[in-house]
Amino acid sequence: MYSVAEERAERVVSGLPHWTPGKTRIHCPPWLCSPYSVECVLRRGDSSGIRRKNYTDLEEVAAFLHSAITGNGRQGYQWLHLRAIQQGYVVSQDTIRQLVKLLDPDGVAKRRALRLSRRQYRNKGPNALWHMDGYDKLKPYGIAISGCIDGFSRYIVWMEAYTTNNDPKVIADYFVSSTARLGGCPEWLHADRGTENGHVENMLIFLRRNHADSFARDRSFLYGRSTANQRIESWLAILRRQSAQFWIDVFYSNVMDISPGISWTRI
């Protein structure tokens, strides 16, 4: 037998795509199954001074969730709840969870089974997109690494070690030397918002100032988080496994032998 909450949820989402009535049920909250009517509960709450939230209509919330799920991939209910709050919807996290179970049952099943498919990396060709980042794991021992990789071919554009990778003039020199050696610059370059990347950004914008494609001029340099800079982060992880970790251990052991009384933190 259906509860009031189940019938209402089905009425809300029955008109949306990918929804078949009768195949999915939502759990009835205990307070809805009490012998008191909803009106009685609300009336007693008012008399007790309990504030009633002006919740957004469920049809509007369901429409927002449907567009978010189809437009941004299959996200979890916590992320969707945060997005709904940011968009001005007044809705509880549990309501979002129940609606997501109805609107995206396949995504819920995959997340529950921890079998989410990874996002696909797309790059249209060589020198279309370069990824640039620094590597600081050897910095405590005086070695600062800066690298850049072509996203399509994974060709190492440069991988340099110096005493610093935070000086914009040093990073700019790597960029100028690489573009001169390769005979050109990329259409697009992805890096984090470090101050060391400012000169490279200005030079790339200047080199692309007369181009007419969609990534020309000030759109040719893309700022983003290091965790989203997939190609260079993946290569730096390989660098640590195959080489850097060995030297980190060597330097750490030598430092401990030289200064046993000083507290050092292994990276």
TrEMBL record:
UniProt superkingdom: Eukaryota
SUPFAM superfamilies with a match to the protein in the record: Ribonuclease H-like (SSF53098)
Gene3D superfamilies, per database record: Ribonuclease H-like superfamily/Ribonuclease H
Domain Integrase core as annotated: residue spans: 121-253
Protein name: Integrase core domain-containing protein
Organism: Coilia grayii (Gray's grenadier anchovy)
